[in-house]
Amino acid sequence: MSERLQSKPSNDGYRMPGEHEPHERVFMVWPERCDNWRLGAKPAQRTFVEVAKAISKRTPVTMVVSASQFDNARTQLPSDIQVIEMSSNDSWMRDTGPSYVVDDNGNRRGVDWGFNAWGGLVDGLYFPWDKDDQIAQKVCEILGDDSYRAPLILEGGSIHIDGEGTVYTTAECLLHPSRNPDLTKDEIEKLLCDYLGAEKVIWIPNGLFNDETNGHVDNLIHVVRPATIALTWCDDETDPQYTLSRESLAALEAQTDAKGRSIEVIKIPMPGPLYMTAEEASGIDAADGMEREAGERLAASYANYLISNKHIIFPLLDPKTDGDMEAMFKRMYPDHLITGVEAREILLGGGNIHCITQQIPAV
Amino acid sequence: MSERLQSKPSNDGYRMPGEHEPHERVFMVWPERCDNWRLGAKPAQRTFVEVAKAISKRTPVTMVVSASQFDNARTQLPSDIQVIEMSSNDSWMRDTGPSYVVDDNGNRRGVDWGFNAWGGLVDGLYFPWDKDDQIAQKVCEILGDDSYRAPLILEGGSIHIDGEGTVYTTAECLLHPSRNPDLTKDEIEKLLCDYLGAEKVIWIPNGLFNDETNGHVDNLIHVVRPATIALTWCDDETDPQYTLSRESLAALEAQTDAKGRSIEVIKIPMPGPLYMTAEEASGIDAADGMEREAGERLAASYANYLISNKHIIFPLLDPKTDGDMEAMFKRMYPDHLITGVEAREILLGGGNIHCITQQIPAV
Description:
The structure is a homodimer.
Chain A: E1 4-5, H1 9-12, E2 23-29, H2 42-55, E3 61-65, H3 70-76, E4 82-85, H4 93-96, E5 99-102, E6 108-114, H5 120-123, H6 130-143, E7 147-153, E8 159-161, E9 166-170, H7 171-174, H8 185-196, E10 200-204, E11 221-225, E12 228-232, H9 240-253, E13 264-268, H10 278-282, E14 306-307, E15 311-316, H11 319-332, E16 337-342, H12 344-348, E17 358-361
Parallel strand pairs in A: 1-7, 2-3, 3-4, 6-7, 9-10, 12-13, 15-16
Antiparallel strand pairs in A: 2-17, 5-6, 8-9, 11-12, 14-15
């Protein structure tokens, strides 16, 4: 039973839970497009396997995969990872999957946003994106859950939520002319609150430097817990991220959340700066849209981690900073399991562990 | 958790339940191939919708559908029918889906037979059949059930089972050189018993006249209940089915089942004879393999019905006999709901309601 609902989550008593709340399952999409993932996506596939295995220590994982890659994915993945056929245009379940909302009576529903490949015909990363736009509905069908089709172009990675009424996002992305040019900022805020069951939107001006998603908030910050935010920090004045991080800190410190609390900011290290090598770039098919050239600055961030059932799965990106970051996670989440996964191959595709995963809340 | 098991169901204490035992769900595949289904498969799709709706009166239904037909199927089907993307070569879930086995402790597993499109390169109906051969495993993955890959080419419609140790099949199909030419009859019997948890195979010489499946048993008979068989009957001496039905009766009456019981045979009427019209044939794409020509005798049979949770879903095929058949079903199954569905469009594609459905036992 998967009904498409015409009402709105907020009116129905639903809210999106925080990522720290319990998960039933995590969904991922198997990578394969050769104009994004180098060497036929084989190195990325190995990394996705490692991410899935890490998550599955605490949370069951479903990997959706195209028909042509089904046998390969089924063979590469351990048998406790569920593999389900699904077509897609790329492999960013955070952005294409449903944002789930729950009520106080043990019910849940999916929110299926419009998707236009991070900018549609204005500055989208590929064309077409029709299969990606169907993923949220298909996931809800598999789970037997009702869903809302929200009248808003939005990727799941462009919002963070604390589960207690506050949405975090960036103006760079949500007010970008390639998403919802006909809506005002107030109208977008209202839709976010209506479809996430939230009360307040906290705007950060910009995302991470050179992030091709138009500055997704999930590559800059993470909600550690309500009213506590991890923020990617940079102390090198010559780095463009220096000013961007300070702007973000100022925006967070200038506001209180939906519960009226001041926001505590934890500054986390930035890896790198990291760049695409000539060898890496040479393994990627030429195509319009995504820039995959040698020397390109990679939008590398430890904020792009996943919390799933008291387990932190974070990207290992730079030996100079990985150890510091792991030590910080142990302090930030003293009762959590902390697992780092070598994740440069995900970074080369334009995102990281948070971008390739979408949690389904337990109810 | 969907493990591929190397053992055998009989050794593990599993048996295939009879169709009269409780079902959790019924799976179907959305039809679309234009060299089998006329007029772009649109009339067949409408019929599949009606079959799914009928079954769903008593049993939840999952329709699997290709990516390109997903939106259409989702729109045509009521919201209580689950729709899941899956690629296929055609739409015969009985033959491509898993045969489920259960144990006495509330567990179930799928049996995934080899599939070669009713005859492979010898006399198969289409090429390739790779997607069809993956369906059983994909269904088990969706359900989270372990599965056995049986070392036997077999379609689910070529066997009937009573759940109490007896398998019914036809020599025409199971001993056909296009299926398992390297196996003897004894070896095939042993594999059937091993993978269905059965003890005895009852062989009927031939299936229905002009059945392109090489005489699937499910288009000739149905297990009404253990030791009671419905057999398609024909009293017209000039019809080739006349002799075939008498041969079948003799084979059934000459044997006892696995429990040592004599087999009671209920003779059910045969529709028609029915033939493909010129108009019907003209709507089908030309292709090698399937013969879809005006005037072709259709392998029409009421035996091709489904039992699902005390509900009989049977094909309406011929106004001259439909009423008699319905009256007989009411006598054969006095405590069951009886639903007829107009099914000529399924017949034109080469099968009927039993062929397009596969039950998943409740455990």
